[in-house]
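Methods — Computational structure assignment.
A single polypeptide chain was analysed. Its primary sequence is given first, followed by the predicted tertiary structure written as C-alpha cells.
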Amino acid sequence: MTKKPLNKAPWKRWGKVVLLAILSLGIAVCGLAGGVLYYFSQDLPELNKLKHYEPSQATRVYSDDHRVIGQFYTEKRIFVPLAEMPPEMFQAILAVEDARFYEHKGFDTFRIIGAFLRNLEGFEVRQGASTITQQITRALFLTPEKTFSRKIKEILLARRIESVLTKDQILELYLNQIYFGEGAYGVAVAARTYFGKELKEIYLGEAAFLAGLPKGPNNYSPYEHLNAGINRQRVVLKRMREEGYITQTQYDHAVLQKLVFKEKSIGEENIAPYFNEYLRQYLITRYGADLVYKGGMNIDTPLNITMQQAAENALRKGLEDLDKRQGYRNKSGHRGGAGPPVEGAVVVLDPQTGSVKAMVGGYDFRRSEFNRALQARRQPGSAFKPIIFGTAIERGFTPASIVVDNPVIFENAGGGKIWKPENYANKFYGPISLREALTYSRNLATINLLEQVGVSPVIEFATRLGIRSPLTHDLTLALGSSGVSLLELTSAYAVFANRGLRIRPTFYVSIKDHTQKILAQREVVPVQAISEETAYVVTNMLIDVIQKGTASKANFIDRPIAGKTGTTNNFIDAWFIGYTPNLVVGVWVGFDEEQTLGDKESGGSAALPIWIDFMKEILPGVVPEAFPTPENVVYAKIDPSTGLLMPPSEENGKMEVFVKGTEPKKYKIDVPRPAQFFKLDEEPENL
C-alpha cells in the first residue's frame, strides 16, 4: 500500500495570506497617509518669511529721563533676543512646555503618547501634547479650531518650520510671540506687566511664574486667581528641578521667596494722554499706521513727568476750586466724581529749545479727548497785549512813551455807534506811560497805541512770533478779539523769554525704529524773530505785571518772573502766561461752549492760581536765573508823568529801560501834559 504525500502545513499557507494582507494593508495605509499628507500640504502657507520674521511690536514713548509714558500697539510686545534673556526664563518655558524641544523635529510622538496615557490614568497633565514649534504654527498661521485637518496641518507646518529655522530661532520667536495675559505679548512685556521689571532683572521664582501663564493666562492671573497661579509656579519649578535646570536648594529657595506683583494697571499706560495722542496722530501721518502700531518704534520726548503731573494736579485743583466758588452744581467737591463742567488747559515750554515739557488738554482725557491746548481757538483778551506793545517798542516807542487812556466810541460812516470799548473797572486814567498801560492792562490806552502803531505791523510782528491763526484786521485786535491756541500764544511769549529767538515747539527729541536706527531728530533752529533788545524791554515791562499789576498774586515768588493775564468780555475766557528765562507756562480756563465763568472770574482769578500752584511745585528745583541784559539797552531816570528825563537836581523820578538810541533827550522843565483828545459818549439830542 502506497503512502499519500503529506500536504504542506496549513499555517504556512495562511501565514503567506496574512503576510500578504498585512503588506497590502500597510501599503494602502501608507498610500492613504501619503495622500492625506499631500492633500493637506497643498494649501500650507509659505514659511520663507520666518527667516526674517519680525513680530508686531509696540511703539514706546519715553519721557526726558527715559521712562515709558505711553505705547501704541495692536499687540503690546517688546522684542528681546534670546541671547539677552536670563537663562531662568527660557529654561522655565522649556521645562513646562516642551522638555524634549532640542531633541524632536517639531512633532514629539513620545509626548503625545505620554499625554494620552496620563489622561487615561487620570493623572495631572503637566504638559500638553503640542510642542513649542506646534504652538507657533497655531499662533502665526492657523485658526484655533480643534479639528483633525488643523492638527494635520499643524504637524506638517511644525516640521517645515524646523527645516527653516534653528532651534534657538524658534525658541526666541516663541518667547516673544506668546500671550501672557493682561494685554502682554512676549516675556519682556510680561515681566513689566506683572512685576514692573525689565526682563533681565527677574529672578527664578518670577521666571517660573511667568512660564506658567501661557497655558491659561486668565486661570493663573495673580490679580484674579493668585492661589492657582502660585500652584502653577510650583509645577514649573518642579519640572525645572526634574529636568536638571535647578538644584533642590534653588527649588526650595524659590518656593519660599515671596512674589511681589505690580499693582494692576487701570487702563493703558498713558502718563500724558493729551501729549501722547497728539504724538500718535503726528507719527501716523508721517510714518503710517502699520509702523506706528506694529513696528516697535522708540520715541524719545522732552516731556518731564514731574512737570506733567504738577500741571495736571494744578489744573484739576484750579477747575474744582472755580466750580465750588461759582456753585455750578454744589459746594461739596468733585474728587472721584464726574468732575466740574468747566474746562482748561496748560502748556509748559522750554524757550531755549522749543521743547514741550508738559501739556494738559483738559480736566480728564477719559471724559473728553479734545485737546484744548492745541485744538481750541479762543480769544486771548489782554494776554495778546504784549504783542502790540512789542510792535510799538520795535517801532521806536519806549516804556516811558505817553499814551492816552480815555473813553472813545468808534462810529461807522453814517455816524451810528458801533463799538464802545471800556476798561476792566470802567475807569479812565488819561495820559499814562506804556509801562503803566501794560502793567494794569488799560484797554483804551492799548487801543490808542494800536491806532498809532497800525494793525498790519502788529499782525506781521505776531506772525514772526509764531502766531498762525488768522487775526482780525481792525482795532478790536487790541483787546485780543482773534482766536488763538494756547500753544501758539505760549510759544509767542517764549520768544520774549529767549532773547527774541523763535524756536518751533517740538514734541520729540528723536524717533527711532525697533533697531534703534534714527528716523528723525529734533532740530533746534533758532530764528531771530525780533531783536534781543525788544524782547528784553517787553519782558522788563511784564515783570511789573507780576510785581504790582494784574498778576500781583504771584509776586511772592522770589525770582525774576514776567507774565500777563487775559480776560475776555463777560468773563468767558481766562488766561495767564508767565515765564522765567528757562520756562514758559501758559494756562487757559473756560467752557467748551462759550459761557461766562462767573462774575469777576478774570485771568488773575481763574487762570493765575493754576499757574502759581504749578510753579510752587516746580521752581524749588530750578536755579533762579535773571533775564540777561543786552548790550544795546540803557537805563535813564525819567519823570513817569511826561516820559522825559528827570533833571539831575531833582531826587524824584524812576529808572526806566530803553533800547539804546530811543531814550529821551529832553528834560522835564515845565512841559505841559499831553492834551486829552477823545470823543465823548454823547447821545443824540433827538433820542
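Note: The first strand starts at residue 59 and ends at 62.
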